[in-house]
Amino acid sequence: MTKGSVKAFLERKNIEISAKRYGIDALSAMAQGLFCSLLIGTIINTIGTQFHIGFLTNPVCTIGGADYTVGGLAVAMTGPAMAIAIGYALKCPNLVLFSLATVGFAANGLGGAGGPLAVLIVAIIAAEFGKAVAGETRVDILVVPLVTIGVGVALAAWWAPGLGAAAMKIGNLIMWATELRPFMMGILVSVIVGMALTLPISSAAICAAFGLVGLAGGAAVAGCCAQMVGFAVMSFPENKWGGLISQGIGTSMLQMGNIVKNPRIWIAPTLASAITGPIATCVFKLQMNGAPVSSGMGTCGLVGQIGVYSGWVNDVASGAKAAITGMDWLGLILICFVLPAVLAPLINMGCRKLGWVKDGDLTI
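Above: the chain sequence. Below: its structure as tokens.
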């Protein structure tokens, strides 16, 4: 095929190989898929546990010997939800779109902590291959799913484990940082885990895998909150209440498409995390002694804060802590909510004055 014929074929198939299509459109859609599965599932589980709602805490079905709650079912569908969202952004024909459910499940499952990144890369390639063959035969009902699923699962088996291992390298860096003095540890852990939460990788999985608790867990919570609350508040003029809730209680990953377009919007929440991290470790001695996974959740469904609180309760019960004090509550509220809500917008105001951030840069 000549260069012109290839270009014409790609145009006919609506295959646009560009940073905008893959780095902004697909990534932004994937963040919405993540919210509608993993994050909403986590929120449902948290509500059920904290308010003792039987329907939300009891298994509603058993699949392959594993029991699933309502929230657990949503979490289990994380990979398919992200992949289908990507396919929707790429304007895939129906047969390609539906086939991506299998691709997303495989990529996310094999990718571990790097699951979302694996889904992003693999689903894009599988979707474009599917689009390329769609409409070219009289048996699309067989050919399109075979090509889309075949390419996607093969790439997932080939690449996803490596992407997961690469994501875990961030965990190694975090564990190295935990060995530093509290001040430097607070800065590095807060910044690294906070950025991991916003990136298309799983900060929660990294924290769980490395058992990140104690002061380091507290720093991780601070960093995640700085990203989520920081982005939510500083983007309020563009995104209003819907954006405040979806980012502040959902995920700051919704801003990844905007970060690709203008990385400078990431300065404010990242600097905020560099400030709140050492305040958490050195001033308030904030510790995460609940489940390690909570260290990487931030304010998503308030899982991070509930994890800190459950750690307090366990410490009091074991005698490791005399009582939950007013200073404990003050630290938790300031670190998780007040300081990110104040610092990120102030820093972003400086970025705007320098011309680095403009109106509309934070619109989701």
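The CA atoms of residues 228 and 252 lie 5 Å apart.
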